[in-house]
C-alpha cells in the first residue's frame, strides 16, 4: 500500500535529499543488502520510475527542494512505482500543481489504474473527480453520505448531487442558478 | 563546507551553458565553491599561517601532538554529528565522559588485573547513559535539549557519587597502557579515533542506516510515512553518542591515570562547535562526518598553534567563539543563495 | 652524558627549586583577614628548605647548580584568587633570578587532561629549549609529566603544589622534583578547632598561618604515610596534634 500525502513538502519528501534517495526511502529494505545500500540496482529502478512519469529536472541527484511543485509531486508519486503496489492512496494529488503537470499526473493515475492498481483518491476538485473516478463516495462529517457509480457520474446532475450530498441536503432539489433569476 | 550528503549537483546558478558568457560563469562558480568549502579554505590558511610563524608547527611530531589531543574530542564530535543530524542535540557527553571514566577507574583501582573489565565498564556506562537519553527522546517525546540537560546534571552527580566526592587516584600503572600503547607508531587513542571516524563516515554514506538517519532528520513525518521506524533511529543515535563518550572517558582517564569527576566537563560545547563549523544544520538532515572532522581539527589546530605562539588561553576562547558564529553565518548565507 | 649537558640539566633543576618556592607563594604576603579557621599561603620558609632539597637532588644526580634556565608555568583558572596569589609569588621570586626566563605561562584550569595537551604543545614549540615546568598544582604537574612521557622521553624537572596522593608518589618516583603539602584533614580540623575556641570564648591568636611544608624525596615517605597509607592511624592522633599546633602556632606540623 502506498500513500501520497496532501502536504508533499511537510509529509511527502525530505527536501534536502536527492530524487534518488527520496525514492529509495519507501523501499529501503529492498534496496539494501545486509545494511549496505545497493548502488546500481536502485539507481536503475528509480530511473525507470522517474522516466515513466516524465520527471523534468537535472537528474536523479538533484535536491528535491529545488524542483517545481509539479515535479515534486511526480517524485512523491513515482517513488512508490519502483515496486509492486496494490493499493495507492492519493490525498489532493494536484493541489498547487501547474496545469501542464496536472494533466500528466492524471495520465499517470489512469495508467496505474488500468494496470490493475487500486487507486483511492481524496479530492475537492470537481473536474478531477468527475473526470477520473469510476466511483465516488461523498464524505460528510466522517461518514459516507452517498455514492455515485460510473453511470450516475456521467449524468448531467452528477455535480449537483455531489454538492447536495456534501452539504447535507439529501433528497431535496436545489434549483441551480439560472441567468434569468438575477434580473429581479 | 561539505554539506550535501550526495555528490553536489550542478550549480543552480548556472543558467544554460549556452546562454551566459563563460567569464561570468567562472566568477559565480568560484564564489559558490568558496562558500561551500569555506572551512577547508580557512583550515588551509590557518595551517599556512602557523607554519610560517613557527618552524616547529609543521613537524610530524607536532602533527601527532595535535591528533592525540583531538582524539577524545573527535569521538564525541562524531557521535554528536549523528544526533544533530536527526535534529536533536546531546548536551550530556561531557558528564558521560566523567561518569564512565569514574566507573572505569573505580573498577581498576587497586586491581590492576581488571584492565579489560575496566574498559568494558566504561563502555557500558556510556552506552547506558546514551540509551536513557535515547529512550526519553524517542519514546517519551522529551525534547532532546531537556533530556540531555538532565543527563548532564545527573551523570555529573553520579561521577561524584562513584568517587565519594573526590577524584580516584592511585591507579595502577598498567591502566596508563590503554592510552600509551602504540600501534604502527601511533598512540592507541589516535588509532581508535581514526577507526571510529572512518567506520561512522562509511556507515552514514553507504548504508541503509545512514540514509534513515538523514531521512529522520530531514523530515521525520515523511520518513515515518515512507516506512522508516523513526523511534528506533532516534534511540540509536543517542545510544551511539553515549557509547562513544564512554570510550572517550576511558581513554582520557587512562591518559591522565586518574578518575577526576570533572573530566570532560565542557567538552560537549567543543563537540557541538565542531559539528556546526563542519557545516551541519542544527535543524537536522544536513551535515557529514567528514565535515565535523574538519571542524574539529580546525579547532584543535588553532589550540595547538596559538599555544605554540604563546597566545593566552582567553584569546583562544575568543577566536573559537568567533569561528563558530562565522562558520554558521557563512553556511546560512551560502544556503539561502542556493534556493 | 657530558659535563655540558649535566650543567644545563642542573640549570633547570636549580631554577626549579627556586621557582618552586615562588609557586608556593613565597614573598607573597597577602593574607585573608578572616579571624577564624583560616589557611594562608605564606611559605617564605620554603626558600631555605627548597634550596636544601635542591642541593640533595643535585648531589644525587651529580649536577652543578647554576641559576639560569627556561621554564614554562602552568596556572590555575585565570583570575581566581589561588591562581593570582601563586602567580604573584612566582613572579616575586623570578625577579630575583633574572637568568631564568619564562617561555610561556598559561592556564590548564587545575586539570590534568588540559595540562597534558598544553604541555605537549609547549614541547612542540620550544623543543629542547624548555628546561623545566612549574605547575601551580599537582594535577597539572602530573599532566605535564604524562606529556613528557609521551614525548621523546627526555625528563625535565617538574614541580607542583598540594601533595595529593599521586603528587606524593611522583615525588617519590622522581617524576616531580618536589611539591608542597596542603594536608586537607589538618587544615580542616584546625579550622574547626579555632572556631570551637571562638564560640567557647577561649583564647585564640589574631592570625594563624598554615605554612605549606615542602615535600622532597627526603621527607616524602613520611607524608605518604600520613596522607595515604596510614591515614586512619594519623586520624586517630589528629586531635592531639591539632591542640599542640594551635598552642605552638605551627599549624603545618605533623610530628
TrEMBL record, chain A:
GO terms for molecular function: ATP binding; ATP hydrolysis activity. The keyword Chloroplast does not apply. Keywords: ATP-binding, Cell membrane, Membrane, Nucleotide-binding, Translocase, Transport. The keyword Lipid biosynthesis does not apply. Residues 22-94 form the ABC transporter domain. SUPFAM superfamilies: P-loop containing nucleoside triphosphate hydrolases. InterPro entries: ABC_carbohydrate_import_ATPase, ABC_transporter-like_ATP-bd, P-loop_NTPase. It holds the Pfam family ABC_tran. PANTHER family: CARBOHYDRATE TRANSPORT ATP-BINDING PROTEIN MG119-RELATED (PTHR43790), D-ALLOSE IMPORT ATP-BINDING PROTEIN ALSA-RELATED (PTHR43790:SF3). This is ATP-binding cassette domain-containing protein. It comes from Streptomyces malaysiensis subsp. samsunensis.
UniProtKB/TrEMBL annotation, chain B:
It is a multi-pass membrane protein. InterPro entries: ABC_transp_permease. GO terms for molecular function: transmembrane transporter activity. Its main location: membrane. The keyword rRNA-binding does not apply. It is found in: Cell membrane. Residues 1-20 are annotated as: Disordered. One of its GO terms (cellular component) is plasma membrane. Keywords: Cell membrane, Membrane, Transmembrane, Transmembrane helix. The chain crosses the membrane at residues 33-51, 63-85, 91-109, 116-139, 145-162, 183-204, 235-257, 269-298. This is ABC transporter permease. It comes from Streptomyces malaysiensis subsp. samsunensis.
Amino acid at each position: 500500500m502506498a500513500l501520497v500525502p496532501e502536504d508533499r513538502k511537510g509529509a511527502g519528501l525530505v527536501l534536502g535529499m536527492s530524487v534518488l534517495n527520496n525514492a529509495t526511502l519507501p523501499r529501503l529494505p529492498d534496496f539494501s543488502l545486509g545494511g549496505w545500500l545497493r548502488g546500481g540496482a536502485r539507481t536503475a529502478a528509480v530511473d525507470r520510475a522517474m522516466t515513466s512519469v516524465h520527471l523534468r529536472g537535472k537528474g536523479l541527484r538533484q535536491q528535491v527542494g529545488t524542483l517545481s511543485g509539479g515535479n515534486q509531486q511526480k517524485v512523491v508519486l513515482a517513488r512508490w512505482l519502483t515496486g509492486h503496489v496494490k493499493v495507492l492512496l492519493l490525498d489532493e494529488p494536484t493541489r498547487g500543481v501547474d496545469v501542464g503537470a496536472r494533466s500528466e499526473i492524471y495520465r499517470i493515475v489512469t495508467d496505474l489504474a488500468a494496470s490493475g492498481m487500486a487507486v483511492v483518491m481524496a479530492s475537492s476538485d470537481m473536474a478531477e473527480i468527475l473526470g477520473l473516478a469510476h466511483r465516488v463516495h461523498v464524505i460528510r462529517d466522517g461518514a459516507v453520505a452517498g455514492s455515485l457509480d460510473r453511470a450516475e457520474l456521467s449524468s448531467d446532475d452528477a455535480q449537483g448531487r455531489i454538492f447536495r450530498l456534501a452539504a447535507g441536503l439529501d433528497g431535496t432539489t436545489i434549483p441551480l442558478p439560472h441567468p434569468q433569476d438575477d434580473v429581479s | 563546507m561539505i554539506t550535501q550528503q550526495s555528490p553536489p549537483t550542478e550549480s543552480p546558478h548556472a543558467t544554460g551553458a549556452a546562454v551566459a558568457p563563460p567569464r561570468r560563469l567562472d566568477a559565480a562558480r568560484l564564489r559558490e565553491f568558496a562558500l561551500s568549502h569555506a572551512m577547508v579554505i580557512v583550515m588551509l590558511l590557518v595551517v599556512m599561517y602557523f607554519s610560517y610563524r613557527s618552524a616547529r608547527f609543521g613537524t610530524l611530531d607536532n602533527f601527532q601532538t595535535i591528533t592525540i589531543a583531538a582524539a577524545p574530542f573527535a569521538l564525541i564530535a562524531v557521535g554528536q554529528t549523528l544526533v544533530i543530524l536527526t535534529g536533536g542535540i546531546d548536551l550530556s557527553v561531557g558528564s558521560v565522559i566523567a561518569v564512565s571514566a569514574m566507573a572505569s577507574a573505580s573498577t581498576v583501582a587497586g586491581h590492576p588485573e581488571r584492565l579489560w573489565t575496566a574498559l568494558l565498564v566504561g563502555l557500558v556506562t556510556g552506552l547506558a547513559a546514551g540509551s536513557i537519553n535515547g529512550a526519553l527522546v524517542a519514546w517519551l517525546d522529551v525534547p532532546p535539549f531537556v533530556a540531555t540537560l538532565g543527563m548532564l546534571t545527573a551523570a555529573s552527580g553520579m561521577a561524584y557519587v562513584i568517587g565519594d566526592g573526590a577524584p580516584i587516584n592511585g591507579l595502577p600503572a598498567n591502566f596508563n597502557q590503554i592510552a600509551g600503547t602504540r600501534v604502527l607508531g601511533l598512540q592507541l587513542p589516535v588509532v581508535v579515533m581514526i577507526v571510529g571516524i572512518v567506520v561512522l563516515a562509511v556507515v552514514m554514506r553507504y548504508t541503509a542506516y545512514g540514509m534513515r538517519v538523514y531521512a529522520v532528520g530531514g523530515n521525520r513525518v515523511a520518513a515515518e510515512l515512507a516506512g522508516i521506524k523513526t523511534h528506533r533511529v532516534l534511540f540509536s543515535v543517542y545510544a551511539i553518542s553515549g557509547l562513544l563518550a564512554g570510550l572517550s572517558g576511558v581513554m582520557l582517564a587512562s591518559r591522565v591515570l586518574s578518575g577526576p569527576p570533572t573530566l570532560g566537563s565542557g567538552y560537549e560545547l567543543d563537540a557541538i562547535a565542531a559539528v556546526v563549523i563542519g557545516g551541519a544544520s542544527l535543524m537536522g538532515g544536513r551535515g557529514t562526518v567528514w565535515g565535523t572532522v574538519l571542524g574539529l581539527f580546525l579547532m584543535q589546530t588553532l589550540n595547538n598553534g596559538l599555544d605554540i605562539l604563546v597566545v593566552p588561553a582567553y584569546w583562544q576562547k575568543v577566536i573559537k567563539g568567533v569561528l563558530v558564529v562565522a562558520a554558521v553565518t557563512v553556511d546560512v548565507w551560502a544556503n539561502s543563495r542556493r534556493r | 652524558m657530558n659535563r655540558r649537558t649535566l650543567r644545563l640539566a642542573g640549570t633547570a633543576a636549580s631554577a626549579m627549586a627556586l621557582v618552586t618556592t615562588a609557586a608556593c607563594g613565597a614573598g607573597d604576603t597577602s593574607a585573608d583577614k578572616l579571624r577564624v579557621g583560616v589557611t594562608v599561603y605564606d611559605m617564605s620558609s620554603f626558600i631555605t628548605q627548597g634550596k636544601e632539597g635542591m642541593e640533595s637532588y643535585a648531589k644525587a644526580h651529580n649536577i652543578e647548580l647554576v641559576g639560569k634556565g627556561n621554564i614554562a608555568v602552568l596556572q590555575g583558572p585565570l583570575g581566581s584568587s589561588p591562581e593570582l596569589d601563586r602567580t604573584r609569588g612566582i613572579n616575586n621570586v623570578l625577579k630575583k633570578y633574572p637568568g631564568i626566563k619564562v617561555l610561556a605561562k598559561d592556564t590548564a584550569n587545575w586539570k590534568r587532561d588540559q595540562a597534558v595537551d598544553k604541555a605537549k604543545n609547549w614541547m612542540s614549540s620550544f623543543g629542547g629549549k624548555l628546561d623545566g615546568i612549574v605547575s601551580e598544582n599537582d594535577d597539572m604537574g602530573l599532566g605535564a609529566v604524562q606529556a613528557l612521557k609521551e614525548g621523546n622521553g627526555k625528563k625535565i624537572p617538574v614541580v607542583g603544589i598540594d601533595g595529593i596522593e599521586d603528587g606524593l608518589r611522583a615525588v617519590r618516583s622522581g617524576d616531580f622534583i618536589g611539591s608542597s603539602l596542603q594536608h586537607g584533614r589538618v587544615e580542616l580540623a584546625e579550622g574547626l578547632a579555632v572556631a570551637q575556641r571562638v564560640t567557647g570564648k577561649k583564647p585564640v591568636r589574631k592570625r594563624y598561618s598554615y605554612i605549606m611544608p615542602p615535600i622532597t624525596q627526603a621527607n616524602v615517605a613520611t607524608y605518604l604515610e600520613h596522607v595515604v597509607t596510614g591515614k586512619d592511624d594519623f586520624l586517630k592522633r589528629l586531635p592531639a596534634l591539632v591542640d599542640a599546633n594551635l598552642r605552638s602556632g605551627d599549624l603545618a606540623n605533623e610530628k
